[in-house]
Structure formats: structure tokens, C-alpha cells
Amino acid sequence: VQLVESGGDLVQPGDSLRLSCTGSGFSGSVYYIHWVRQAPGKGLEWVAVTHNGGDSTWYSDSVKGRFAVSRDTVTNTVYLQMGTLQFEDTAVYYCARGAGGWSMDPWGKGTLVTVAA
């Protein structure tokens, strides 16, 4: 099982950006995929989680209404569409598979999003 994130970039406040998380090794099974971020010098912050068995996605209050998760079951990819980006969204964004409760495994290596003027 492997997860690979991509799409991180340097953007300006107010811009949009889409991150991708492509999984391998577990297609066809039911699972949760989380998005988690870590801002420079700070701890991990949970962003969102989606369930591939239905149209269920949950978001943290800090991104609700600005970020949206979608899935492509053909390519086994989960997307994080980020809108109205703010300086505080600067972070390394990770995707991780849910492993029961708040446990997550495996994790991808992350992709860096930098919001700067």
C-alpha cells in the first residue's frame, strides 16, 4: 500500500490549488483517506477525511467552505481542491489512509503549499 501526494505550489492569497493523492495496493476495498497538514514549526493539523464507500466527507472548521475533497475511483486518486487560500494555509499537506479511529497508516511523503504575496 502506497500513497503519493502531488500538486503543491507557491500561490498568492485568494488563489486556488488542487492537490492529488494517488493510492496503490488497495483498490477495490473500502477505506477512508485523510488529509493532514503541518505548518512550519507547528504540529499536525487534521484537514479532512473522505470515505470511498459513499459520498461522505468531513472537514475541519478551518477549511470548511473553502476546501473540497473529491475522488476518482478509476485512477484511485483523491483530490483536495483548495480555494481562497490564506497565509495560514501554508503547510506540507499529507494524505493518509484511515486505520481505525484517528489512526492513520500509511502516510504519503507530503507536498508543500506556500501561500505568499
What is the H/E string?
EEEEEEEEEEE
Overall helicity: under 10%
Largest sheet: 7 strands, mixed
Mean pLDDT across every amino acid position: 93
Count of runs of 4 or more consecutive helical residues? 0
Distance between the termini: 38 Å
β-sheet strand percentage? over 45%
Number of strands: 11
Are there runs of 5+ residues with pLDDT below 50, and where?
Answer: none
Shape: globular
Helix and strand content put the structural class at mainly beta
Rg calculated over all Cα atoms: 13 Å
Description of the structure:
Strand 9 and strand 10 form a beta hairpin. By secondary structure, the protein is an all-beta fold. 0% of the residues lie in helices and 54% in strands. The model has no long low-confidence stretch (mean pLDDT 93).
List its salient traits:
117 residues; single chain; mainly beta; 54% strand; seven-stranded mixed β-sheet
Quick structural summary:
The protein is built from no helices and 11 strands. The chain has strands at residues 2-6, 10-11, 17-24, 32-38, 44-51, 56-59, 67-72, 77-82, 91-98, 104-107, 111-115.
SSE order and pairing:
Elements lengths: L1 E5 L3 E2 L5 E8 L7 E7 L5 E8 L4 E4 L7 E6 L4 E6 L8 E8 L5 E4 L3 E5 L2
Parallel strand pairs: 2-11
Antiparallel strand pairs: 1-3, 3-8, 4-5, 4-9, 5-6, 7-8, 9-10, 9-11
